[in-house]
Design brief:
By secondary structure, this protein is an alpha+beta fold. It is 46% helix and 14% strand. The chain is globular.
């Protein structure tokens, strides 16, 4: 799966990591619903850190279609809310 982190680039991510990422995505969704800004920020940073850790960066000149687009680490709660799908940022 190709994942784009806005403002950073793309990484190739093995699907086997999606379960762990989905747990963080669920936490992020709950924090957004409760309006807990500090917890939201912490979980967003943790989610992006895991994607960076698990993913293999693609070259800067590579433009593969992204199957998943994640917000930048400085995205606001409102910006992330606008990106959400029914099941959060990460499908599943």
């Amino acid at each position: 799966m190709i994942v784009r982190i806005m403002g950073e680039g793309q990484v190739a991510l093995v699907d086997s990591h999606l379960a762990e990422l989905n747990k963080l995505d669920d936490e992020l969704l709950a924090e957004m619903e409760s309006g807990d800004g500090p917890a939201f920020r912490s979980t967003l940073h943790a989610l992006l850190a895991r994607v960076r850790e698990f993913g293999t960066p693609l070259p800067d000149d590579s433009l593969e279609p992204s199957e998943l687009i994640l917000p930048s680490s400085d995205a606001t709660l409102e910006e992330v809310r606008a990106m959400l799908r029914d099941d959060g940022l990460i499908p599943g």
